[in-house]
Amino acid sequence: MNQIEQWKHDGYLVHRNVFEEALIENLREACDDSLAQWQRESIAEGEPGGYCYGPKAWVMLHLNHPKYQHHHPQRLATLLNAVADPRVLAILNDIFREPAVFSQINYYIDPLQSRPNGWHRDSQFHAEFTGEDETSSIHREADPPREIHMHIPLVPTAASEVVPGSHLRTDTPEEDHIRRDAPDSDEMPNTLRLHLEPGDLAFFHVNALHRGLYLQGVPRRTIAVTLNRASDPRPITAAMMEKRSGYFPAYQPWFSNPKYLDGCSPAAREFYQRFIDVYGESWRPDFMQKLPQSLQEYFTKY
C-alpha cells in the first residue's frame, strides 16, 4: 500500500527518522525556553482561549509567537523552516493533493496534574461553532482532507491515540456512546496508539476519532501543527474571535511584519506567504474589539 492509499484507508501516517538529531536538539532547546517564558508570564486574560499556564496546563498556543524569540531571533526561523521542510511539504502535498496552508503551531506538554483525555473529532467543535451538521462535515471533508494535524515529537512519546479509518464514517453506536457520554473511557474499540521517537513525524486526520494523553510524570514535548487544504480554508470572523476568546488558529497578525520570515528558506517563505495570502486580509483590528485589552495586546504588541 503506497502512502496515498494508506492515508485514504487509515487517516494517519507515521514517517520515521525524518529530522536529524542536531535539529531535534536545537528545537527542544528553543521550544523549552519559550515554554519557560510562557510559564512565567502567561495569564488567562492575555492568552487566546484563556490557555495560560497552571497545574493542568497541557498546551502552549502559538509557539511561533515572536514574543518568545526576542533574545534568540534565529530560533524562530529554525522552527518555521522545520515545519516547512521540503520533506514535510512533499508528504503534505501527497495527503492534500494540492498545496497545504499553514494554520497553527502549538506545543503539547505534560501537566503537573493528570487531566481527562477526551475522545473527539475536531468536526464536533466546528459544527458547534458554525451550526453546521457534523455528519455532513465528516463525509465532505473525508478525502481529500480539509485539515490535518502533524506532530513533531522532541522526546519519545506514545501520547496520541487514533481509530484508523474513522475519518471516513460517522460513529458506531459504541463510539458514539463513548464520545458523547464517556469521552475519557479507555475502552474505545480498535484504538491505535502512536509510538513516536524524536525525529519521527506523525500525520492524522482531524476528523478521525482521536485523543491525547496528558499524564503527570510522563514527559511530553510535541510540536503540534495544524494545516488546511488551500482550496478550503476556514474563514475568520469577528463573531468567531469573540466566541472563542481570541483562539482562532489562523489569526496571527505578526506574519504581517516584513521581518517575521527573516532567516526562512525559500521553500518556507513560499509556504508561509500562501498563509498570508489566504488569511492576511482577516487579521483586522476590529475583529479584536470585544476581547480584553491584555488579549488585544497579545495580537498587537510583540
CATH topology: Jelly Rolls
- Low-confidence region ranges: none
Radius of gyration: 18 Å
What is the overall number of helices?
A: 10
Roughly how many Å apart are the termini? 47 Å
Q: Strand share of the residues?
A: 15-25%
User: How would the global form be characterised?
Assistant: globular
Q: If classified by CATH, what would the architecture be?
A: Sandwich
What is the total domain count? 1
Mean pLDDT: 95
Strand count, sense and closure of the main sheet? Answer: 6 strands, antiparallel
**Helix-and-strand structural type:** alpha+beta
SSE order:
HEHEHHEHHEEHEEEEHHH
The CATH C-level class name: Mainly Beta
| E-strand count | 9
Helical content stands at 25-40%
**Order of adjacent strands in the largest pleated sheet:** 1-7-4-9-3-2
